[in-house]
Write a structure and sequence with these properties.
Chain A: Keywords: ATP-binding, Cell membrane, Membrane, Nucleotide-binding, Transport. The structure holds two protein chains of two kinds. Chain A is of the alpha/beta class. Chain A is 33% helix and 23% strand. Chain B has a single domain, classed as MetI-like (MetI-like fold), CATH 1.10.3720.10. Classes of the chains: A alpha/beta, B mainly alpha.
């Protein structure tokens, strides 16, 4: 396989205050390959958004801090860069889009000015050139009236249009990595499909790698090549998307899959995972999913499982699952 | 082909009719629909016009003493009579408006400038900087105002418009500063500010390009409200003898001079007009401020 574009190693992002240490991201590893989509899946509070902000080095200070780890973009550790050098990376080599298209555009600046700003900042073009390129970018994200849209203000666009404008802005400098944090959560289902199609075609045209943060397994199924499932600030399962959907191993992943409504099956109730994500301030001492886990054994509450590859390119953090495969291996 | 051309033509025609609706234009439209605010705006325009064009309405010099014509009742030559020093009351009233308005507007702009810079830095950077700066604001808010003015006037050994503007600016900025800090704290959490960070914009660019334009609506409201406040404050200080010297024509000064038992009763023409002017100015500026606030209210987007 090709060299990974983004390689995150043992990332730990903590929120440290006088009274407590909140381990929002606690030893996360993953890779994103050029032209591929990595989906990070998890419930609210699983640390997935904090992981994406860490990659951009935008963890809200002064409490939030990346205390350990490496974030290698094309082999260069972003955590070692100066703030000034990091600003040259943001918007240029890494683009980012957010969940709320309604508030992510500045209400007093024209669409064209906002897209042009990225180009002026990183490509050193004149304002007139930037505007011309903004028109081309808007057309490439599917605006037929791009010439007019550049001179319009965000309040004149619908939510889906704003999200596409955001994508145009994030893609302006043709970054090698696009971070999309819940890009479709706030949109209607029909618009969701449009935005996902757009992201997919941009990926295919430009070879952009996408780090897709979402809690929506449907979106992951459509988009992702590889999947990382996060729980309690840790990766609990990592595999290719096909593998995850065909053979989910971690009890948490299985429970997530079971909670998707299936239209062909008639069920009395949707299956939900009992309980909620534990607060990052006081995790259980053993496996963090153990209190909600149907398979949990006694040792699960005491011993923290390692993330271990148990079959080819399929890693899981679960003592029970690991134990089963170990026994199978011993038997053969 | 012809159909396509026709189609294009129809499209461009449509865009010509539809002007770009900037947020400012929308706010202006909403302001124009507010009758009270528009009335206030035109009243203020008239007041500004008659004071700026004062020489057109009166031939007299507001600072020329004429001891032959003291305490005259209203007449064709002196529509509002003359006061105890022989000053023409109408001339004092019109020229005095210049002074009052200049002082109020200049002081409002000065406090706003200090407030934006101080509050902006405090709110944007937050943390201990914010804490330290806001504690100083607390001290300043509790500062005894009138003794401070007396002290300053004693130090500079003079009184006049400049001193008054300086004094008001130096003492009244903490309010606007605290207000602007709140606005900046709020803006800092906006997604589009985070968005600007993610495209690699620098701190100063974010402050000036992304945050400051979004404070203009609040600023406009605050400036108009402070102008109203300072017209009253100037008049009040002058009335107390702490503001402008009586040689400078001003509304507060006219009130002050008429504030004795005899003049109040026998010469209403000497004090009612400046009092009316003060009230009219404050009211119209307040109406404008209210109108601006409603016009900029994001909840009322139509």
């Amino acid at each position: 396989m090709a060299e990974p574009l983004l390689k995150v190693r043992n990332l730990r992002t903590y929120f440290i205050s006088k009274n407590s240490t909140v381990k929002a991201v606690d030893g996360v590893d993953f890779e994103v390959y050029p032209g591929k989509v990595l989906g990070i899946v998890g419930e609210s509070g699983s640390g997935k958004s904090m992981t994406s902000l860490s990659v951009m080095r935008l963890v809200p200070g002064p409490q939030g801090k990346i205390v350990e780890g490496e974030i290698l973009l094309e082999g260069q550790d972003l955590l070692q860069l100066s703030e000034r050098a990091m600003r040259d990376v943001r918007g240029n080599r890494i683009g980012m889009i957010f969940q709320e298209p309604m508030s992510a555009l500045n209400p007093v600046l024209k669409i064209g000015e906002q897209i042009g700003e990225v180009l002026v900042r990183h490509r050193k073009v004149t304002k007139a050139q930037a505007k011309k390129q903004a028109v081309a970018l808007l057309r490439s994200v599917g605006f037929p009236r791009a010439e007019q849209i550049v001179d319009e203000y965000p309040h004149q666009l619908s939510g889906g249009m704003r999200q596409r404008a955001m994508i145009a802005m994030a893609m302006a400098c043709e970054p090698s990595l696009l971070i999309a944090d819940e890009p479709t959560t706030a949109l209607d289902v029909t618009i969701q499909a449009q935005v996902l199609d757009l992201m997919r075609s941009l990926k295919e045209q430009n070879g952009t790698a996408i780090l897709l943060i979402t809690h929506d397994l449907g979106v992951v199924a459509q988009m992702a090549d590889d999947v990382v499932v996060m729980y309690g600030g840790q990766v609990v399962e990592a595999a290719s998307a096909d593998e995850i959907f065909d053979h989910p191993l971690h009890p948490y992943t299985q429970a997530l899959m079971a909670s998707i409504p299936v239209i062909e099956e008639e069920r009395e109730r949707l299956q939900a995972i009992p309980g909620t994500v534990p607060s990052a301030a006081d995790f259980p001492s053993g496996c963090r999913f153990a209190p909600r886990c149907a398979l949990a054994e006694e040792r699960c509450h005491e011993q923290m499982p390692e993330l271990r590859e148990i079959s080819l390119a399929h890693a899981v953090r679960c003592l029970v699952v690991q134990g089963k495969t170990d026994r199978r291996e011993n038997a053969t | 082909m012809a159909v396509q051309a026709l189609h294009n033509k129809a499209k461009t025609g449509e865009t010509k009719r539809k002007r770009v609706q900037s947020p400012w234009r929308l706010s202006l439209q909403r302001f124009m629909r507010n009758r009270l605010a528009v009335a206030g705006f035109f009243t203020l325009l008239v007041i500004i016009f008659v004071t700026v064009a004062a020489p057109l309405f009166t031939p007299y010099n507001p600072t020329a003493i004429n001891i032959m014509n003291t305490n005259l009742p209203p007449s064709a030559a002196h529509p509002l009579g003359t006061d105890g020093s022989g000053y023409d009351n109408l001339a004092r009233l019109l020229y005095g408006g210049r002074v009052d308005l200049t002082v109020a507007v200049a002081a409002a702009l000065m406090t706003m400038l200090i407030g934006v810079i101080y509050g902006g830095i405090s709110g944007f950077f937050g943390g201990w900087i914010d804490n330290l700066m806001m504690r100083f604001v607390d001290v300043m808010l509790n500062f005894p105002f009138i003794p401070f003015i007396l002290a300053l006037e004693a130090i500079f050994n003079t009184s006049g418009e400049l001193i008054l503007i300086t004094v008001v600016s130096l003492t009244a900025w903490p309010g606007p500063a605290r207000f602007m800090r709140g606005i900046f704290l709020q803006l800092r959490e906006q997604d589009y500010v985070l968005g600007a960070v993610t495209i690699g914009a620098s701190k100063w660019r974010i402050i000036f390009r992304h945050m400051l334009p979004n404070t203009i609506s609040s600023l406009a409201v605050l400036v108009s409200m402070s102008v109203a406040g300072y017209v009253g404050l100037d008049a009040g200080l002058t009335f107390l003898g702490l503001g402008l010297p009586l040689t400078v024509p001003s509304w507060g000064g006219m009130l002050s001079q008429a504030s004795n038992y005899i003049d109040m009763r026998t010469e209403p023409y000497s004090w009612i007009p400046p009092a009316l002017m003060i009230i009219l100015t404050i009211l119209s500026v307040n109406f404008i401020g209210d109108g601006l606030r409603d016009a900029f209210d994001p909840q009322a987007r139509t």
